[in-house]
Amino acid sequence: MKREMTKEDKELAAAGYEHLEDHKAKGDKKIDSDFDNVDISEHRLSFAELGTTLEAAMDTKDPGNSYGLSAEEAKARLARNGPNILTPPKKKSAFRKYFDCLMTMFNILLIVAGILEYILLGIDFKNNFANTYLGGILIAVAFLNAFIEFYQLQKSEAILASFLAMIPPSCRVVRDGTLSSIPAADLVKGDIVLVRVGDKTPADLILFAATDLKVDNSSLTGESEPQERCAKPNGSDVRPVEAENLLFNSTLVVNGEGWGVVVRTGDHTLIGQIASLTGGETGNASPLSIEIGRFVMFVSSIAIIFAVIFFVVGITTVYKGKAAQTVTFAVSILVAFVPEGLPSVVTLLLSIAAKRMAAQNVLVKDLQGVETLGSLTLLATDKTGTLTRNQMTVTNIWSGEKMYSAFQSNNDNEDTAPFSIDAPGMRETVDIAALNSRIKFDKTDVPFDQRQILGDATETGLSRFAGRYLSDYDEHHRKHPKVFEIPFNSTNKWALVILEKSHAEGGLTSYIKGAPERVLAKCATYLKDGNAVPITDDFKAKYDEAYNYMASRGHRVIANAQRLLPLSQYNHTTKFTKNDGEYPSDGYCFVSLTSLEDPPKHGVREAIGTLRLAGIKVMMVTGDHPKTAEAIARKINLILGETKDTLAAKTGRPVEEIYDDEVDAVVVHGDDIDKLQGWQWDQIFAKQEIVFARTSPQHKLEIVKRAQALGHIVGVTGDGVNDSPALKKADLGIAMNISGSDVSKEAANMILLDDNFASTVKGVAEGRQIFVNLKRSIQYTISHSTPEVIPQLLYVVVPIPLPLSAILILVIDLGFELFVALSFAWDKPETKDGLMRMAPRKPVNNRSILSLKKRALRRTKTLRRDTETQQVIPPSKLSVWASKVKAPFTSVFWEDALERSENETLVDSKLLSYAYLEAGVIEMVGALVAYFVVFFKNGFSPSDLRRAQINGGYFTKSSSDFINYKGESLNASHQVDALGQAQSIVYLSIFIIQCFNVFAVKAKFSYPFGKSIIGNYYNFAGILAGACLGMFIVYTPPLHVVFGGSVHLSPLYWLIPIAFGVLLLAWASLRVVLLRKGMEQSRVKDINGLMMFPTMRTMSMRSRQQ
């Protein structure tokens, strides 16, 4: 139904897409004078001169029969000239990387604080001597922190390098007369190389045979359009970059195929000679790194503000103008607020997760990509080779208005006849399958059924089928040589070949095969009982019925047609050309429909079901026909509901009368994509089940951009060259290792080493768990800020003796806290189904989309545009800076900031509330109660402590005696020991209650006592390490000079913080009860009709029946 929209509706629907509508490809040519200076001249040589110069054995008439180099000669040339590898671009030195790790906000604060302490030491050495330790520790901590982060980064880079070494680029080369696949690094000058669509050119090649070959030189020259390349028997007398017979290293073959001889390798290639093209490394910040950066700035700002406030309060009250002591006090506040070990912990957690994923055959190129996979809201996946096995087998043939089965099957109708080569139309079908083909064999000296076929899955399936009914496959090809050929491409969606095959009317025959709708459009007749009969409406109706029968079973359908070229128009001297349209393009006779089954991979159905239950929208983007795509989608849990077509068929209503909100699924044809308006895109993405069929690479890219414009975090899985633009644009590109092209693996952020789509599910679960573990670690780490800062506040406001020194605060932050915070990396999911029944942390729904569009519309209206061209005029840097300064003083800024959102960020209000106001307060009260009890047991009441601190001069080795509330006289050594015990119990109280907090922070779905909560043994190892450190510091007399402490502290006092630890667990349990309803609501509801049993092994079962 057409929808009437108001002007406001249209503006709102278009908002957020405007940058996509305005975007136009710019083909800025970057060819500069460097290209004139490159040392490449072989493209000027003729074929004969080329063969002589390179000592290469190449057959220019039949490239497949080229002998190439011998293995011994290739080995000798490799030893002489070196491997075919480019010198890697200059990377950051180890020192520069370490310096970058050191220059984080937290480390800078620590270094500045440490330097301040040494400045004070220079001003007054005697009174500030104790600061020697503090300043040194602060600076050492910063350098140690940076080293841990640097070491982990180096380690993860080494792991990545080792995995990438396992998947080196390969190429097809002829050696000793045999076509084989070898690592591209082993190529030498004179090698004969075959390149096909999807390949990355492995070296600089001179073509000596090519068919419809086009290359993408954009990475090298900036030319946005693919460039045609062909063989030049007499050479090409132009600049290398303009030579039509020269392919450059690292450029991408986007169409056709070609045979070339290697003329340059490694640094001698064009790309190797132009240093400016091999620039340094670049990278975009991931969402996680942005969130961590914001949190670091937030905490650092609070730390600096509080340090300044406490400095002012301290110098005007307790320190009475003593600047040096006040600075030390302010530094302790700074140290209390800054979680010094956090950057190292984050890096370590991600490294551990990446290593775990690598063990599951998922290679993560970027550590942050681990978490990105967990936050996906939409996964767009290719069909062939990703969801299906890419092992095509011919199943049915429809010819002469009759259906045949290519093998025995219990699923066919009763009127389906078994295949017979003598049946009408079958021999022609076999001929088209065999002769209109571009497959190659690894060997030709073995029987046909023992050969490995090098080619795409569809042609491989057709050739296997044809080979069973031809007595000599190779002889059949030699008997009917090709005269002209147009290979299949994603634009035409058909392949055409003209052969020397005699018939009654002449000596040439043209065969065409491809997408049924495209092939049928070129036909005027159809083959019935060996005769060409005009196509009628009755035939078209039967054709549609046959096509639907095949496609509805999820089979790929190929149409075959032939044209017997009359001698009066076409003979052996006729020049056929593609560009001028000089080839027979219509008047064909329709021969048959051939269906091929590409069964789903095992585990795909359950994987998609699991992802959907995790709230991730999974959609298929494929080049197949809509009916084939829909049938496969229904087999693998991708479509469960009704589409408009199926509902119309079920209810008997016309499709036009079906309302959009009556259906849950949509199948979009690629031809419609270019015409879709903003509101139609919104309607499509509002559906839960989406399939895009008959798509081109440009369509895939457009789909990703449109989804991202609605706020989706998009993952794209694919294996072909046509997937690479979308893989690069997506938030997370996932490529296949075994079946994937080199360019798709390069564009992706993640590679499935075993090509198992189900590994994506493991990755999502790992990504979500690592986010939770990071959050727990941060929540745990910053919980100690309140018990560290509030006692310092009481020290200057009440005042009381200093409960916790700056050095003890450092011991907390970098001692036991670091061990325990790191142990969260090994936390298991809290519940049985883990986080895979929860919605993504940044869900996309109607409310989030509306909010996004309103902001985009507001932004669009404030943009300045050129009055004539209406193009956006970019604002100056000054105006951008001014608008950022003014923003906090506008109502819109606060409306956006305070707008309720379902997004879960790494550090949100719930986390801060728990850390600072809930667990933090319990820890602070527990530590202060223990502090006052210890002092009371040593003869000091709270009022005594206040009086002693106001009068000053107490709690040092040279103090005078103090008369307490009982009238007892307490000497200096007693005072010092009492203070040591009190500071020790505050330190131990924070440690002990934090031990309970380890389990309290995990309590989200269940109480903090279950097996899943306490099942992480690394937590206990971290606690044990912290306990040993605490005992060592408190009960070792030589260390009291630096840290304070007292051997006289009774372990009975530990019971106080233990009681508060139990109280914290009780509060965490109550919190679970209070938040349980919200947790249940955030779970993804069950989806009716999901099939969570293994995919049937239909193909293997059928093959057994034969």
UniProtKB/TrEMBL annotation:
It is a multi-pass membrane protein. The chain crosses the membrane at residues 98-121, 133-151, 295-315, 327-350, 914-936, 985-1005, 1017-1035, 1055-1075. It comes from the Eukaryota. Residues 41-122 form the Cation-transporting P-type ATPase N-terminal domain. PROSITE patterns: ATPASE_E1_E2 (PS00154). GO terms for molecular function: ATP binding; ATP hydrolysis activity; P-type sodium:potassium-exchanging transporter activity. GO terms for cellular component: plasma membrane. Residues 1-28 are annotated as: Disordered. This is Aminophospholipid-transporting P-type ATPase. InterPro entries: ATPase_P-typ_cation-transptr_C, ATPase_P-typ_cation-transptr_N, ATPase_P-typ_cyto_dom_N, ATPase_P-typ_P_site, ATPase_P-typ_TM_dom_sf, ATPase_P-typ_transduc_dom_A_sf, ATPase_P-type_domA, Cation_transp_ATPase_P-type. It comes from Cristinia sonorae. It is found in: Cell membrane. One of its GO terms (biological process) is proton transmembrane transport. Keywords: ATP-binding, Cell membrane, Membrane, Nucleotide-binding, Translocase, Transmembrane, Transmembrane helix. Its main location: membrane.
